[in-house]
Structure formats: structure tokens, C-alpha cells
Specification:
The complex is a heterodimer of chains A (about 375) and B (about 280). With about 375 residues, chain A is an alpha/beta fold. Chain A contains 13 helices and 15 strands. Chain B has an eight-stranded mixed sheet with strand order 2-1-3-4-8-7-10-9, with helices on both faces. A two-stranded antiparallel sheet of chain B has the order 5-6. The N and C termini of chain B lie far apart (about 60 Å). Classes of the chains: A alpha/beta (about 375), B alpha/beta (about 280). The structure holds thiamine diphosphate (TPP) and iron/sulfur cluster (SF4). Chain B: This is 2-oxoacid:ferredoxin oxidoreductase subunit beta.
């Protein structure tokens, strides 16, 4: 019997781990524009992709072009990635909406920096949480993931690609500067040790194919451009054939389907880690590097006799409602520390509906949230 | 209703499952440009599956809906960026971008410059009607100085962009201009543009009587086509004209015709070299 291959261990930056994860997931196309603190993702891709069969790296003239290029490449059948930070993310929003409407898989990494505007280029912040949710115009579903350490950067990037392909949608991975620029030892999983999902391609004859047809999962199959399935792709509201429509019933059908295909799979999509939440009176809800501070604070609180727990959000949107409901069954207090003025605590309060008391810790000065800050609030009950 | 016989080339390329009528005004030049594009693809014998039409937003952008190729209707001004991604992902495909003058020169101006600089193997077809047609006749970067539009009721102050000079300056491989009055010549230009490697820019002058003509002394489509007939002169003749004769004249023909390899070709060559050196 073959011995299981040992996992290769490397010492990597969060941004580097994103690249490893993307390549493991089958990413073969990167289009981007540099911006701190995300640039390493682009630089490493520039070195790696030309060495890989069919690997394409292209530096575009701006973030708008980056999004256009990766959407085009995705329509041509590739697994695609771009990475950016705050101001670049803002520029990407119009085409992000296009990718949602045209159901184009892609992964967009935003290493957040302080804002608004050019803000704090090299300081940690979590200021784009609501931009990730609502940055593009119109009503739309979105999948937003996060990572709190370097290993998770790799793992969540693979997850992001899988979800993008599975649900035919853009997936945003929101990192903060601390996570992106921390160097840690990580294990690279061997092929076969993790799931790699690729979009479903149609198997019916081209004449039968309807590009935006209703299916059981709500996700229509997607052929690459040039493979014999000729159809129309548009950002306009379209019918099942992909042609623009203004008929109320067709508009509603499309909008409901693109929402449903994501909302109904919350068990697959809404990922959290829990530490000591089963009996916790006080539950900290955190994400990104702040979740690491929170983990230490929760352990220290337990040592001090307080029944504290941590709900670490790995999926930010759709907001993990079920998992929050679970801790709300007994928690008296929810503590939400974050590096912004309260962008995720809004979601927590929305789900909480006044049941527990919600305490927020907000840092907006480009500094990290420390374990002792969180501990202090936990100890206040 | 006239009978559709299916003998016309266009009938082999229109989408029969698309609900007609189309969105264009009667007399609009855009349909003529689409006709020349289809006939040139037909003449070149390129299979439908190998053609991707990428279009921007505007009346011109809507052309992609009606033709039976792989068609991608993108965001305003961004068609070339999508096209760049498609071409890099699948270099074997013939990628043709249909853009309006507002689309290509205003909001998409930066992408046009960089597509030319990169010399990406895409054909850019710019339908210049001197105006923003779809949004109701506001001025575009191609609106002539002094002309009247909805957003400069007292006359356009800005100078008008010269698409040919811009594309040539930025490094396009092939640059040509034609008009919808000179259909045969436009068709020839289109064939050459599609066949060349690298980035090709074809500017097609196409009248919009609805939004531009009616405010600028050309009330009917016929007035506009008469203007095209009079204004356009082949570049060879234009060059021999005096400064005085050149006024209000529009040189048409081929301005740049080179055969430099496209970005995708250069990338693939570099990749082969790097992989031979020890890549995976
Ligand atoms: C980002 C953005 N800005 C503005 C618009 C509105 N818009 C739609 S078409 C158009 C201009 C169309 O003019 P042109 O590109 O010259 O094409 P034409 O309609 O004349 O063929 C504009 C400004 C838009 N759709 N998107
Ligand atoms: S508004 Fe002008 S460009 Fe648009 S369809 Fe009518 S004539 Fe053509």
C-alpha cells in the first residue's frame, strides 16, 4: 500500500499562500493592476504562470481592465483570479456586477486597507466589508470569504475557486494587511487531498442549449466560448436564451434564480469555525486577523472563569445566520471586534434582533485589535 | 411583409430565435456596418464557432445580439478589455470588438491606447457617428468642433479626436477608415483587418440622422449619405490636395498596414522559452 505523501511545508506570506491555493485549484489566468498591500499576489503570479502549461499572466492598464480581462478569460473557459485593495476594488465594482449578472465564475482577492479614498495604504483595516456586500449596483447575491491566518489563505482560496465554479458566480476573498503580510509555516496539500470543482459544461446538442435555463440547483451549465455553443452574453437583464428582456415575468425569473442558487446552499457556503461556543455566555464574533486576537482573548477569559467562546466567520456573506442563531440560544452577550466603525456588527445586530446585548470594539486608526482589548470587554460580561 | 428566402448571406448569420424587430432607427448606418462585417467573415470563410463578437454599450453595442456567433455584450467602454482576456485565453479565436465612438474614444479611450500598445490580436471596429446615439444625442469625443448637440447647444468647444492618428500613435498594427456609403471598400478593409496579426483598428463613419444629423443641417438619412459621398476622399487623393481643398474632407482608406506579431503570439513564444528553460 502506498504511504500517504507527506505534505510539503513552506514558510509563506498570506499573499503567497493565496497564489499556492489558486494554482492548486486550477487557476490558469491572472489579470491585474498592482496596489499595496496586495501586490505580492500579482508579482508571484507573474513569475509562476508563464511556467505553467496554458498559464496566462497579464498586467492590465487599470482595475477596470483587469476585471474585463478575467471575465473574458472565464467566458473562454479559464479559472481566473485578480487581486486588489480598496481603491482598486472600487474600480472593479461595475464589472463585478456584470460578472454576477452574466454568471461568470471568478475569484477576486481584496486585501483591505484603510479608507475612504487612498486612505492608509500599508495599515491593517477591515473597511470594505459592506463594499464587498453592496459595492456594485442593484439587488444581487454575493459570496464573500475571509481568512485569519496564512494556512487559511491557501485553504480559503481553494474554497473560493470551488464556490465560484459550483455556483457560476464571482467570489470575493477579503483579507486584511496583517493576514496578507504575516509569514508562517503552512502545509501544501497534495492533489487528491482536497476537492477541486470545475464548472459544469453542457452535454446536450448545441441547438437544445439554453444558456440561462432553470436547473435543479439553479446553476445552468456553461460552455467555453468557441466550443460550438453559440449564445449571447450580456449584462442586461436577459431571458433564458440570454437575450435582453423587459418582460416582468422574465425579469423576476432571472433575479429569483440568481439569488436562490446561492441562498439555498447555506450549509455549503456559510463557513465558520467555533471555539468553546457550546456553553458560552459571551461569544465573540470575529473574522480576519482580529479572530486570532479574539481566540487568545477567549482562552484567557476561560482561564479567568468566564464561559467565553469564539464564532469565527470564514464566510462573511451570505452572513452565517444559522450558526449565529445557535450561539444566541444561550449567549447573553455578543462581542464584535473589527477594524472599522461597525460594518459586520450591523449584520450581527440584524440577526440578533435584540436578544443578546451586542458590544462592539472598533479600531479605525490603522492599528490591530489586541487580545487584551477584547478580553477587557469579555470580562465586563 | 417581405418574404425571407434565405438566399442572402446575411440570413445564414442572423439569429432566428431572436425576437425582431431590432433597436436601430430606419436609415441608421450601423446595420450597413454589420452587413459588411458579416460578408467579410463569410468571404474569409471563418467558421461561426471561431468568431467572438465583443461589443460595448450604445446603439452600436446592440449589433452583437442579432448575429449567430459567440457574442458578448459588455459594459460601456470596456469591450476591448473583455476581448483581451478572451484572446489571451483562447488565441485561436477571431475576436472582433464593436464599439461606438463614445464607447471607444471617451470612456474606453485608455483601453484603446493600451490595446494598440500591446498590439493584442483583436479587431477593433469603431462605429463613428459623431454622437452618443443611444443616450439621446449628447456630444462625443468625435463630435466636430462647432457642431450642436444636446450637451453643447451653443456649439462644441473641444476639438474632435482623430481616431486614425490616435490608433497609429499608440502602435496599432493596422489602421483604416471607411464609410457606410463606400460599402465595398469598407468590406475589403474589414477583411484585411481581420486577417492581419496584432491589433487592427477600423473606423467606420456611419450616420446618425436621428441624434446628430437633425441638429446639424442633415435632416434625413439621405442628406447624411450625400454628405458622406461628398466628404470622403481616398487617402491617396487627400494627400495631393491643398490645405484649402482638404477642409471638411475626410480621408478614407488604409493608413497603417504592418505584420508585427500580436501580444498573444509574443506571450506564447516567451512561455515556450521559459518552460524549455526549466518550467514544469
Ligand atoms: C458607465 C456608463 N456610463 C454611461 C452609460 C450610458 N451610455 C449608454 S450608451 C452611451 C453612449 C453611446 O454612444 P456611442 O458609444 O457613441 O454609441 P452609439 O449609441 O452612438 O452607437 C452612454 C453614455 C453607461 N451605459 N455606462
Ligand atoms: S439613434 Fe442614431 S445611432 Fe442610434 S439607432 Fe438611431 S440613427 Fe442609429
Amino acid at each position: 500500500m502506498a504511504r500517504p505523501r507527506k505534505r510539503k511545508e513552506i514558510f509563506a506570506l498570506g499573499n503567497e499562500a493565496v497564489v499556492e491555493g489558486a494554482l492548486l485549484a486550477g487557476c490558469s489566468f491572472y489579470g491585474g493592476y498592482p496596489i499595496t498591500p496586495s501586490s505580492e499576489i500579482m508579482e508571484i503570479m507573474a513569475a509562476r504562470l508563464p511556467l505553467i502549461k496554458d498559464g496566462v499572466f497579464i498586467q492590465l492598464e487599470d482595475e477596470i481592465a483587469s476585471m474585463g480581462a478575467i471575465i473574458g478569460a472565464s467566458l473562454a473557459g479559464r479559472k481566473v483570479l485578480t487581486a486588489t485593495s480598496g481603491p482598486g476594488f472600487s474600480l472593479m465594482q461595475e464589472n463585478l456586477g456584470y460578472a454576477i449578472m452574466a454568471e461568470t465564475p471568478m475569484v477576486l482577492v481584496n486585501v483591505m486597507r484603510g479608507g475612504p479614498s487612498t486612505g492608509l495604504p500599508t495599515s491593517p483595516a477591515q473597511g470594505d466589508v459592506q463594499q464587498a456586500r453592496w459595492g456594485t449596483h442593484g439587488d444581487h447575491p454575493i459570496i464573500v470569504l475571509s481568512a485569519s491566518n496564512v494556512q487559511e489563505c491557501l485553504d480559503m482560496t481553494i474554497t473560493a475557486f470551488n464556490m465560484a465554479e459550483k455556483y457560476r458566480t464571482p467570489v470575493i476573498l477579503l483579507l486584511d494587511e496583517v493576514t496578507a503580510h504575516t509569514r508562517e509555516k503552512i502545509a501544501i496539500p497534495n492533489q487528491g487531498e482536497f476537492e477541486v470543482f470545475s464548472r459544469t459544461v453542457p452535454s446536450m446538442p448545441p441547438e437544445w442549449y439554453k444558456p440561462y435555463e432553470e436547473t435543479v440547483r439553479g446553476v445552468p451549465p456553461m460552455p467555453p466560448l468557441g466550443s460550438g455553443y453559440r449564445f449571447h452574453v450580456t449584462g442586461l437583464t436577459h431571458d433564458r436564451n440570454g437575450f435582453p428582456t423587459q418582460r416582468p415575468e422574465e425579469i423576476v425569473e432571472l433575479m429569483e434564480r440568481i439569488h436562490r442558487k446561492i441562498d439555498q446552499f447555506f450549509y455549503d457556503i456559510q463557513l465558520v469555525d467555533t471555539i468553546d461556543t457550546a456553553d458560552a455566555d459571551v461569544v465573540v464574533i470575529a473574522y480576519g486577523s482580529v479572530a486570532r486576537s479574539a481566540e487568545l482573548a477567549v482562552r484567557q477569559a476561560r482561564e479567568n472563569g468566564v464561559r467565553a467562546g469564539l464564532l469565527k466567520l470564514k464566510t462573511l456573506f451570505p452572513y452565517p445566520r444559522r450558526q449565529t442563531e445557535k450561539v444566541l440560544a444561550h449567549a447573553r452577550t455578543l462581542v464584535v471586534p473589527e477594524m472599522n466603525m461597525g460594518q459586520m456588527s450591523r449584520e450581527v445586530k440584524r440577526v440578533n434582533m435584540g436578544r443578546a446585548s451586542v458590544r462592539t470594539i472598533n479600531r479605525i486608526d490603522g492599528q490591530i485589535v489586541t487580545p487584551s482589548e477584547i478580553l477587557k470587554v469579555i470580562m465586563q460580561g | 411583409m417581405s418574404e425571407i428566402t434565405g438566399n442572402e448571406i446575411i440570413h445564414q448569420y442572423l439569429r432566428h430565435n431572436k425576437k425582431f424587430p431590432h433597436v436601430l432607427c430606419a436609415g441608421c448606418g450601423h446595420g450597413i456596418v454589420l452587413g459588411t462585417l458579416i460578408r467579410s467573415i463569410h468571404t474569409l470563410g471563418i467558421p461561426k464557432d471561431d468568431v467572438v463578437i465583443v461589443a460595448g454599450i450604445g446603439c452600436s453595442g446592440r449589433l452583437a445580439v442579432y448575429v449567430d456567433f459567440n457574442t458578448v455584450h459588455t459594459t460601456h467602454g470596456r469591450a476591448l478589455t473583455f476581448a483581451t482576456g478572451i484572446k489571451m485565453a483562447s488565441p485561436r479565436l477571431n475576436v472582433i470588438c464593436i464599439m461606438g465612438d463614445g464607447d471607444a474614444l471617451s470612456i474606453g479611450g485608455n483601453h484603446l491606447i493600451h490595446a494598440a500598445r500591446r498590439n493584442i490580436g483583436v479587431t477593433a471596429l469603431i462605429l463613428n457617428n459623431n454622437i452618443y446615439g443611444m443616450t439621446g444625442g449628447q456630444s462625443s469625443p468625435a463630435t466636430p468642433e462647432g457642431a450642436t448637440t444636446m450637451t453643447n447647444p451653443y456649439g462644441q468647444l473641444d476639438a474632435s479626436f482623430d481616431t486614425v492618428a490616435l490608433a497609429r500613435g499608440a502602435g496599432a498594427n493596422y489602421v483604416a477608415r471607411g464609410t457606410v456609403f463606400h460599402v465595398k471598400r469598407l468590406e475589403g478593409i474589414m477583411e484585411e483587418a481581420i486577417s492581419r496579426p496584432g491589433f487592427s483598428v477600423v473606423e467606420a463613419i456611419t450616420p446618425c440622422h436621428t441624434q446628430y444629423g437633425r441638429k446639424n443641417r442633415y435632416k434625413t438619412p439621405v442628406d447624411m449619405y450625400k454628405w458622406l459621398k461628398k466628404a470622403a476622399v481616398p487617402i491617396e487623393r487627400f494627400e495631393e490636395m491643398t490645405e484649402e481643398q482638404r477642409r471638411d474632407r475626410l480621408p478614407i482608406g488604409v493608413f497603417v498596414a504592418e505584420d508585427r506579431p500580436g501580444f498573444e503570439e509574443r506571450y506564447l513564444a516567451l512561455q515556450a522559452q521559459m518552460r524549455a528553460k526549466g518550467g514544469k
